[in-house]
Amino acid sequence: MTFLDYAPAPESASILNLKSEYGLFINGDFVPGKGESFTSISPATEQQITTVSCASEADVDTAVVAARRAYERTWSKLSGADRGKYLFRIARLVQERSRELAVAESLDNGKPIKESRDVDIPLVAAWFFYYAGWADKLDYAGLGPAPRSLGVAAQVIPWNFPLLMLAWKIAPALAAGNTVVLKPAETTPLTALLFAEILQQADLPPGVVNIITGAGATGSALVNHPDVNKVAFTGSTAVGREIARSTAGTAKKLTLELGGKGANIVFDDAPIDQAIEGIVNGIFFNQGQVCCAGSRLLVQESVHDEVVDRLKERLSTLRVGDPLDKNTDVGAINSASQLGRMRELSDIGEQEGATRWSPACTLPDKGFWFPPTVFTNVSTSHRIARDEIFGPVLSVLTFRTPAEAIAKANNTPYGLSAGIWTDKGSRILAVADKLRAGVVWANTFNKFDPASPFGGYKESGYGREGGRHGLAAYLAPAAVSSRGSSRSSSASSVKALRGGTK
Ligand code: NAD
Question: Measured by CB atoms within 10 angstroms of the end CB, which terminus of the chain is less buried, N or C?
Answer without folding.
Answer: N
